[in-house]
Amino acid sequence: MNLKEMVTFLDKPIRKKSKTRVLGSFLVVLVGGCLFLDKVLLYLGVEGGNNFGFYSYADFIWVLMSSFVPVGLGVVFLVFRPYIVFFLVPLYCYIIQMIWIFQPHIPSDDVYLNLYVSGICITIFLTITSLGIQSSKKFDKREKYLRGMIQKEAKEIIEILKGKLD
Length: 166
Description:
Blueprint: H1 3-11, H2 16-33, H3 37-44, H4 57-80, H5 88-101, H6 113-165
């Protein structure tokens, strides 16, 4: 690699693919967060006019989102190819829901709201941290490669200058 190619390599912008994956990762968290949209609507006092046969509007939203989220995650995965680690957020929500389903003495999963929120915050923090670590490793690899190329070019320039001085 000559000096001109090295400068071109250094000036190369972040690839579009990487930006698309980050956007997809954000969408995974957003779609996964829809799993507890019923809790948000209850907190905000939003009540729909039609429960569609369910006990409450929140129950309807819960069933609707539980059906929508897997489809939404599939579409996001196929279109954006997000970082897999971000799927921990919806997975965490589904695990909490599975725990609640097998607890027949608890009539509502409202008691798990603190667990939902704290777990999602921790999961998002860990996934963003892991993404940062992953990108810094790539940066370190690139920096090491470039240092080696610069040293190689510097040695070649020194040899050329020695030849001209002799």
